[in-house]
């Protein structure tokens, strides 16, 4: 807890939230919420009966295709979107619906948002200093000007930029730098919960990992809890403690990251997993995409519910489906949810036959950024050695005038280069075989 919060004796929130049956502190609890836009015939129910808890200090990711309602839920958490049913609790205190102004201010102070498009979310006419200071000023989180400057300068450096950047405007920065400013604006408030809405989707692939690492750094140092919104399971796999899968406004599965990748029980989760690109082009070409067909569920009589089937794994289904999911989970054998077909072997209907099945957990994902080959990097660092040797010998023997010596020098250069390549090959073989 930050100093500002501990000093605030009139806080609406207790120091700790409620704990679940395993003793984990629940920071945010989303309980059976519906969110509807518009009225009457044109009403759109963007979120239906959604429930999940977020534990203190964890990264909870909400994943689903475009238009599934992820942003709508994120905006409901920060009180921008009103609920049409259900409630949202923060540390056990209801923060949805009509609440006192002072509680509303406390929510704004404690729950910050990082947006997908850093270009659109920063005020282009304001300096970086103003943007980062705005929240501090609104909440009077400093004693005097020197303290404000010190907080802002410290924060700009925390996100990897420099104090001299404070006088500049957002358009003077790259996309990645602008997202760093967006993160600084949120983190300077010392929030407990950050809703990160696709914070890397609009960025170049090469800088996505840097921004993720920055968010992770804050989590480690300041125990920030994240609600991370993404449309791609591969992005959230390594950064999430738990993942919630959402389909057309309905949360269909919630489980710990590894549990979800090993036991994707809801068919929609399986379809998302089958869409993760496999880095091996041959396997990717022959991969069979699993298309989710919602008409497979018959909910005409047996109504679906969101049920914990054990292992803190929640699935949406009717009684019959839940029994099936439980039976699959109790076998404790990870599911092979990725199917690779052999295009040369056709079945009686002319379809390519199944050749192998993989677990989603087995797919080795490419890094989020292109690191290149580490051994090529090592090699490039060593290349200066023959250069230096050649320069020394040239100076000593003045080779350019001495043909024989020049030949010897070139020979020596190639021997050294050969040795370096040999060293590289040994390393390469050692790593890959
Ligand atoms: N202000 C609004 N008014 C009317 N409909 C809205 C509004 N905001 C969202 N919607 C609708 O709610 C549904 C969910 O949208 P939302 O933006 O939450 O999806 P999303 O999963 O975040 O998608 P994306 O990944 O594309 O941002 C969509 O059908 C969208 O058109």
From TrEMBL:
<keyword id="KW-0547">Nucleotide-binding</keyword>
<dbReference type="InterPro" id="IPR027417">
    <property type="entry name" value="P-loop_NTPase"/>
</dbReference>
<protein>
    <submittedName>
        <fullName>Peptide ABC transporter ATP-binding protein</fullName>
    </submittedName>
</protein>
<dbReference type="GO" id="GO:0055085">
    <property type="term" value="P:transmembrane transport"/>
</dbReference>
<feature type="region of interest" description="Disordered">
    <location>
        <begin position="1"/>
        <end position="20"/>
    </location>
</feature>
<feature type="compositionally biased region" description="Polar residues">
    <location>
        <begin position="1"/>
        <end position="11"/>
    </location>
</feature>
<dbReference type="InterPro" id="IPR050319">
    <property type="entry name" value="ABC_transp_ATP-bind"/>
</dbReference>
<dbReference type="Pfam" id="PF08352">
    <property type="entry name" value="oligo_HPY"/>
</dbReference>
<dbReference type="GO" id="GO:0016887">
    <property type="term" value="F:ATP hydrolysis activity"/>
</dbReference>
<feature type="domain" description="ABC transporter">
    <location>
        <begin position="30"/>
        <end position="273"/>
    </location>
</feature>
<dbReference type="InterPro" id="IPR013563">
    <property type="entry name" value="Oligopep_ABC_C"/>
</dbReference>
<keyword id="KW-0067">ATP-binding</keyword>
<dbReference type="InterPro" id="IPR003439">
    <property type="entry name" value="ABC_transporter-like_ATP-bd"/>
</dbReference>
<dbReference type="GO" id="GO:0005524">
    <property type="term" value="F:ATP binding"/>
</dbReference>
<dbReference type="Pfam" id="PF00005">
    <property type="entry name" value="ABC_tran"/>
</dbReference>
<comment type="similarity">
    <text>Belongs to the ABC transporter superfamily.</text>
</comment>
<dbReference type="InterPro" id="IPR017871">
    <property type="entry name" value="ABC_transporter-like_CS"/>
</dbReference>
<feature type="transmembrane region" description="Helical">
    <location>
        <begin position="413"/>
        <end position="431"/>
    </location>
</feature>
<keyword id="KW-0813">Transport</keyword>
<keyword id="KW-0812">Transmembrane</keyword>
<dbReference type="GO" id="GO:0015833">
    <property type="term" value="P:peptide transport"/>
</dbReference>
<keyword id="KW-1133">Transmembrane helix</keyword>
<keyword id="KW-0472">Membrane</keyword>
<dbReference type="InterPro" id="IPR003593">
    <property type="entry name" value="AAA+_ATPase"/>
</dbReference>
<feature type="transmembrane region" description="Helical">
    <location>
        <begin position="374"/>
        <end position="393"/>
    </location>
</feature>
